[in-house]
Amino acid sequence: MFILTRLTDLLTIQPTSFTIPTRQALEDQINTRYANKVIHKVGLAICLYDIVKSSDGLIGSGTGNVNINVEFRLVVFRPFKGEVLTGRISNSTHQGLHIRLDFFDEIFIPKDYLFEGSQFDHNEQVWVWRTEDGDELFFDKNETVRFRVEEEEFTDNTPVDPALRDSLADADMKPPYKLIGSCYQSGLGVVAWW
């Protein structure tokens, strides 16, 4: 679920931060720049793990800023295909289930990846699995579910001209990182069932 990723970046320390130890100033810069942000084709950066190495600082002409090349490792959320995770149902639609973790909300289980015999109840706005024995098992909101990661989707959201931003619907905006899961194998689905 979590991996370590090595990155390099050019960081700038402003003169106002000269009273802070250099290592602490670098850690603060890295966490501010990367923590809780999606890195395209890498995953969701959680926090800094460690600083591997850094160069000597070079003072910028006219600004007094110090530029330092830093190599560091980040803790990144990127589950592998086939990994089983546990989350909570945030809502249900006729297209499938939306699942959330404590720190990540962009998980979707399409209707085709639910148990055979699952149907959407429009009155209750919930998915129901009708088993071969005739039992009805509900995918209720906020239930803890176990699901398997089937695929991941990265979307490169390039900046949009502010003049055009109003004409674009929010529905057109895709999340930068999304997981597609499944609940069609034994042991998956609502944890209370098993």
UniProtKB/TrEMBL annotation:
It is found in: Nucleus. GO terms for biological process: termination of RNA polymerase III transcription; transcription initiation at RNA polymerase III promoter; tRNA transcription by RNA polymerase III. GO terms for cellular component: chromatin; RNA polymerase III complex. Its main location: nucleus. Residues 83-194 form the RNA polymerase III subunit Rpc25 domain. Keywords: DNA-directed RNA polymerase, Nucleus, Transcription. PANTHER family: DNA-DIRECTED RNA POLYMERASE II, III, DNA-DIRECTED RNA POLYMERASE III SUBUNIT RPC8. This is DNA-directed RNA polymerase subunit. It comes from Dactylellina haptotyla (strain CBS 200.50) (Nematode-trapping fungus).
